[in-house]
Amino acid sequence: MTNEEIIRAEAKDFYEWQMGREDEVINEVDKIKNRLSSLYSAEFKAIFLDELNQIVSKNLQDHRNDAHNGEPNPGCAIEIKTEKLLFYLNQEMSILPKIAKNTNARESSHMRNKVFVSYSHLNKSYLNDIKRHFKPFLKEIDFWHDENIQPGAKWKTEIRNAIDQTKVAILLLSTDFLGSEFISTDELPPLLQAAEKDGATILIVILEPCLFEEFPNLNQYQAMNPPSNPVIKMEYSEKEELYVNLVRQTKKLLK
Asked: What range(s) does the TIR domain occupy (predicted)?
Protein backbone atom coordinates (compact mmCIF):
# COMPACT_ATOMS: atom_id res chain seq x y z
CA MET A 1 0.00 0.00 0.00
CA THR A 2 1.11 3.55 -0.68
CA ASN A 3 1.34 6.11 2.12
CA GLU A 4 -1.86 7.71 0.87
CA GLU A 5 -3.73 4.40 0.86
CA ILE A 6 -2.57 3.69 4.42
CA ILE A 7 -3.69 7.11 5.66
CA ARG A 8 -7.07 6.85 3.94
CA ALA A 9 -7.60 3.42 5.49
CA GLU A 10 -6.67 4.88 8.88
CA ALA A 11 -9.21 7.66 8.37
CA LYS A 12 -11.95 5.15 7.57
CA ASP A 13 -11.13 3.15 10.70
CA PHE A 14 -11.04 6.33 12.77
CA TYR A 15 -14.46 7.38 11.52
CA GLU A 16 -15.95 3.96 12.17
CA TRP A 17 -14.61 3.63 15.72
CA GLN A 18 -14.29 7.20 16.97
CA MET A 19 -17.00 9.24 15.27
CA GLY A 20 -20.70 9.11 14.54
CA ARG A 21 -21.64 8.62 18.18
CA GLU A 22 -23.82 10.94 20.23
CA ASP A 23 -20.96 13.34 20.90
CA GLU A 24 -21.28 17.06 20.35
CA VAL A 25 -19.55 18.33 17.22
CA ILE A 26 -16.89 20.10 19.26
CA ASN A 27 -15.98 16.78 20.91
CA GLU A 28 -15.62 15.11 17.53
CA VAL A 29 -13.46 17.99 16.32
CA ASP A 30 -11.23 17.53 19.37
CA LYS A 31 -10.89 13.83 18.56
CA ILE A 32 -9.86 14.71 15.01
CA LYS A 33 -7.29 17.23 16.20
CA ASN A 34 -5.83 14.70 18.62
CA ARG A 35 -5.55 12.14 15.82
CA LEU A 36 -3.93 14.68 13.51
CA SER A 37 -1.22 15.33 16.09
CA SER A 38 0.17 11.85 15.38
CA LEU A 39 0.63 12.69 11.69
CA TYR A 40 3.79 14.74 11.31
CA SER A 41 3.47 15.65 7.63
CA ALA A 42 1.08 18.43 6.58
CA GLU A 43 0.32 16.45 3.43
CA PHE A 44 -0.60 13.35 5.45
CA LYS A 45 -2.91 15.45 7.63
CA ALA A 46 -4.55 16.84 4.49
CA ILE A 47 -5.11 13.32 3.11
CA PHE A 48 -6.60 12.16 6.43
CA LEU A 49 -9.01 15.11 6.54
CA ASP A 50 -9.87 14.74 2.86
CA GLU A 51 -10.93 11.14 3.44
CA LEU A 52 -13.01 12.12 6.48
CA ASN A 53 -14.60 14.90 4.46
CA GLN A 54 -15.58 12.46 1.72
CA ILE A 55 -17.04 9.98 4.23
CA VAL A 56 -19.05 12.63 6.09
CA SER A 57 -20.30 14.21 2.85
CA LYS A 58 -21.40 10.84 1.49
CA ASN A 59 -23.17 9.96 4.73
CA LEU A 60 -24.97 13.30 4.68
CA GLN A 61 -26.21 12.71 1.14
CA ASP A 62 -27.22 9.13 2.00
CA HIS A 63 -29.23 10.47 4.94
CA ARG A 64 -30.94 13.02 2.72
CA ASN A 65 -31.77 10.34 0.16
CA ASP A 66 -33.23 8.04 2.80
CA ALA A 67 -35.04 10.60 4.96
CA HIS A 68 -35.76 13.66 2.84
CA ASN A 69 -36.10 12.50 -0.77
CA GLY A 70 -32.58 13.67 -1.52
CA GLU A 71 -33.25 17.26 -0.48
CA PRO A 72 -31.64 19.30 2.34
CA ASN A 73 -33.74 19.72 5.46
CA PRO A 74 -32.52 22.72 7.49
CA GLY A 75 -34.54 21.62 10.52
CA CYS A 76 -33.08 18.12 10.71
CA ALA A 77 -30.84 17.67 13.77
CA ILE A 78 -28.66 15.13 11.96
CA GLU A 79 -28.08 17.52 9.07
CA ILE A 80 -27.32 20.44 11.37
CA LYS A 81 -24.69 18.43 13.22
CA THR A 82 -23.17 17.06 10.01
CA GLU A 83 -23.02 20.47 8.34
CA LYS A 84 -21.21 21.85 11.40
CA LEU A 85 -18.73 19.00 11.26
CA LEU A 86 -18.10 19.61 7.56
CA PHE A 87 -17.53 23.29 8.32
CA TYR A 88 -14.81 22.42 10.84
CA LEU A 89 -13.25 19.86 8.51
CA ASN A 90 -13.09 22.36 5.67
CA GLN A 91 -11.67 24.98 8.00
CA GLU A 92 -8.85 22.64 9.01
CA MET A 93 -8.25 21.63 5.39
CA SER A 94 -8.00 25.25 4.23
CA ILE A 95 -4.63 25.71 5.94
CA LEU A 96 -3.13 22.45 4.69
CA PRO A 97 -1.72 21.45 1.28
CA LYS A 98 -4.40 20.70 -1.26
CA ILE A 99 -4.77 17.09 -2.37
CA ALA A 100 -5.38 16.97 -6.09
CA LYS A 101 -7.80 14.37 -7.36
CA ASN A 102 -8.98 13.62 -10.85
CA THR A 103 -12.69 13.32 -10.13
CA ASN A 104 -13.53 12.59 -13.75
CA ALA A 105 -13.67 8.84 -14.21
CA ARG A 106 -14.03 9.12 -17.98
CA GLU A 107 -11.07 7.82 -19.95
CA SER A 108 -9.45 10.28 -22.31
CA SER A 109 -10.36 9.76 -25.95
CA HIS A 110 -6.72 10.31 -26.92
CA MET A 111 -3.28 10.59 -25.37
CA ARG A 112 -2.99 13.36 -22.80
CA ASN A 113 0.38 13.77 -21.13
CA LYS A 114 1.21 17.49 -21.02
CA VAL A 115 1.16 19.96 -18.17
CA PHE A 116 -0.20 23.22 -19.59
CA VAL A 117 0.27 26.52 -17.77
CA SER A 118 -2.26 29.24 -18.50
CA TYR A 119 -1.22 32.67 -17.24
CA SER A 120 -1.26 36.37 -18.00
CA HIS A 121 2.02 37.71 -19.37
CA LEU A 122 1.74 40.43 -16.73
CA ASN A 123 2.31 37.65 -14.18
CA LYS A 124 5.40 36.19 -15.82
CA SER A 125 7.51 36.40 -12.66
CA TYR A 126 5.21 33.84 -11.01
CA LEU A 127 5.58 31.55 -14.00
CA ASN A 128 9.35 31.74 -13.61
CA ASP A 129 9.09 30.63 -9.98
CA ILE A 130 6.93 27.67 -10.94
CA LYS A 131 9.24 26.72 -13.82
CA ARG A 132 12.11 26.58 -11.34
CA HIS A 133 10.27 23.99 -9.27
CA PHE A 134 9.36 21.85 -12.27
CA LYS A 135 12.84 22.03 -13.80
CA PRO A 136 14.29 18.99 -11.94
CA PHE A 137 11.50 16.83 -13.39
CA LEU A 138 11.44 17.93 -17.02
CA LYS A 139 12.74 14.54 -18.18
CA GLU A 140 9.54 12.95 -16.91
CA ILE A 141 7.07 15.85 -17.21
CA ASP A 142 6.11 17.50 -20.49
CA PHE A 143 5.78 20.99 -19.02
CA TRP A 144 4.28 23.40 -21.55
CA HIS A 145 3.75 27.15 -21.60
CA ASP A 146 3.68 29.62 -24.46
CA GLU A 147 7.41 30.34 -24.19
CA ASN A 148 7.86 26.88 -25.73
CA ILE A 149 6.56 28.18 -29.06
CA GLN A 150 9.37 28.44 -31.60
CA PRO A 151 9.88 31.57 -33.74
CA GLY A 152 7.91 31.35 -36.97
CA ALA A 153 5.39 28.85 -35.61
CA LYS A 154 1.66 29.55 -35.79
CA TRP A 155 1.25 30.38 -32.13
CA LYS A 156 -2.51 29.89 -31.86
CA THR A 157 -2.21 26.48 -33.50
CA GLU A 158 0.64 25.54 -31.17
CA ILE A 159 -1.39 26.53 -28.12
CA ARG A 160 -4.42 24.58 -29.27
CA ASN A 161 -2.32 21.50 -30.05
CA ALA A 162 -0.81 21.68 -26.56
CA ILE A 163 -4.25 22.01 -24.97
CA ASP A 164 -5.43 18.96 -26.90
CA GLN A 165 -2.64 16.96 -25.22
CA THR A 166 -3.06 18.43 -21.74
CA LYS A 167 -3.50 16.09 -18.78
CA VAL A 168 -3.00 18.73 -16.06
CA ALA A 169 -3.83 22.40 -16.59
CA ILE A 170 -2.29 24.84 -14.12
CA LEU A 171 -4.18 28.14 -14.06
CA LEU A 172 -2.36 31.11 -12.50
CA LEU A 173 -5.20 33.33 -11.39
CA SER A 174 -5.08 37.08 -10.99
CA THR A 175 -7.20 40.02 -12.09
CA ASP A 176 -5.06 40.18 -15.24
CA PHE A 177 -5.74 36.50 -15.93
CA LEU A 178 -9.49 36.95 -15.46
CA GLY A 179 -9.46 40.03 -17.68
CA SER A 180 -7.52 38.47 -20.54
CA GLU A 181 -9.70 38.12 -23.63
CA PHE A 182 -7.38 35.54 -25.18
CA ILE A 183 -7.38 33.35 -22.08
CA SER A 184 -11.16 33.59 -21.66
CA THR A 185 -11.92 32.79 -25.30
CA ASP A 186 -9.05 30.62 -26.56
CA GLU A 187 -7.58 28.81 -23.55
CA LEU A 188 -10.17 28.37 -20.82
CA PRO A 189 -13.06 26.89 -22.86
CA PRO A 190 -11.08 23.95 -24.30
CA LEU A 191 -9.25 23.36 -21.00
CA LEU A 192 -12.49 23.29 -19.02
CA GLN A 193 -14.09 21.05 -21.63
CA ALA A 194 -11.13 18.68 -21.40
CA ALA A 195 -11.57 18.55 -17.63
CA GLU A 196 -15.31 17.98 -17.94
CA LYS A 197 -15.32 15.38 -20.69
CA ASP A 198 -11.87 14.06 -21.48
CA GLY A 199 -9.95 13.22 -18.32
CA ALA A 200 -7.89 16.38 -17.77
CA THR A 201 -7.50 17.97 -14.33
CA ILE A 202 -7.55 21.66 -13.40
CA LEU A 203 -5.16 22.97 -10.73
CA ILE A 204 -5.62 26.60 -9.72
CA VAL A 205 -3.04 28.80 -8.03
CA ILE A 206 -4.33 32.19 -6.88
CA LEU A 207 -1.52 34.66 -7.42
CA GLU A 208 -3.11 37.92 -6.38
CA PRO A 209 -6.42 39.10 -4.88
CA CYS A 210 -9.14 38.73 -7.50
CA LEU A 211 -12.85 37.99 -7.76
CA PHE A 212 -12.28 34.28 -8.33
CA GLU A 213 -15.61 33.49 -6.67
CA GLU A 214 -17.48 35.44 -9.36
CA PHE A 215 -16.52 32.93 -12.06
CA PRO A 216 -18.58 29.73 -11.60
CA ASN A 217 -16.68 27.90 -14.33
CA LEU A 218 -13.51 28.34 -12.23
CA ASN A 219 -14.64 28.40 -8.61
CA GLN A 220 -16.10 24.92 -8.95
CA TYR A 221 -12.48 23.77 -8.67
CA GLN A 222 -10.74 23.94 -5.32
CA ALA A 223 -7.66 26.12 -5.57
CA MET A 224 -4.26 25.03 -4.30
CA ASN A 225 -4.32 28.02 -1.95
CA PRO A 226 -7.35 29.82 -0.49
CA PRO A 227 -8.46 33.12 -2.09
CA SER A 228 -7.76 34.80 1.25
CA ASN A 229 -4.09 33.83 0.98
CA PRO A 230 -2.86 34.59 -2.55
CA VAL A 231 0.78 34.03 -3.43
CA ILE A 232 1.56 37.74 -3.33
CA LYS A 233 0.80 37.78 0.42
CA MET A 234 2.94 34.75 1.24
CA GLU A 235 6.30 34.73 2.92
CA TYR A 236 9.07 33.06 0.93
CA SER A 237 8.92 29.71 2.75
CA GLU A 238 5.14 29.44 2.46
CA LYS A 239 5.30 30.24 -1.24
CA GLU A 240 7.98 27.60 -1.77
CA GLU A 241 5.87 25.01 0.06
CA LEU A 242 2.91 25.84 -2.18
CA TYR A 243 4.99 25.34 -5.33
CA VAL A 244 6.48 22.10 -4.00
CA ASN A 245 2.98 20.80 -3.36
CA LEU A 246 1.91 21.92 -6.83
CA VAL A 247 4.67 19.80 -8.37
CA ARG A 248 3.89 16.89 -6.05
CA GLN A 249 0.19 16.88 -6.91
CA THR A 250 0.93 17.27 -10.62
CA LYS A 251 3.27 14.27 -10.57
CA LYS A 252 0.60 12.23 -8.81
CA LEU A 253 -2.00 13.12 -11.43
CA LEU A 254 0.32 12.15 -14.28
CA LYS A 255 0.86 8.61 -13.00
From this structure: 111-254
pLDDT for 187: 94
Give pLDDT, residue 105.
43
* pLDDT tens digits, one per residue of 81-110: 899 999 989 888 877 877 766 554 445 545
What would the DSSP string read from start to end of the chain? --HHHHHHHHHHHHHHHHSSSS--HHHHHHHHHHHHTT--SHHHHHHHHHHHHHHHHHHHHHHHHHHSTTS--TT-HHHHHHHHHHHHHHHHHTTS---------SPPSS---EEEEE--GGGHHHHHHHHHHHGGGTTT-EEE-GGGPPTTS-HHHHHHHHHHTEEEEEEEESHHHHT-HHIIIIIHHHHHHHHHHSS-EEEEEE-S---GGG-HHHHTSPPSS-TTS-GGGS-HHHHHHHHHHHHHHHHHHH-
Task: Output the pLDDT for position 233.
Answer: 96
Residue pair 210/122 in contact by the 8 Å Cβ criterion: no
In this predicted structure, what is the pLDDT of residue 220?
A: 87
Domains of the chain: 3-95 (no CATH), 114-254 (3.40.50.10140)
What is the side-by-side strand order in the sheet with 114-118?
Answer: 142-144, 114-118, 166-173, 201-206
Sites in the chain below the pLDDT cut of 50: 104-106, 109
Work out the number of other CB atoms within 10 angstroms of the CB of residue 37: 9
pTM, to two decimals: 0.73
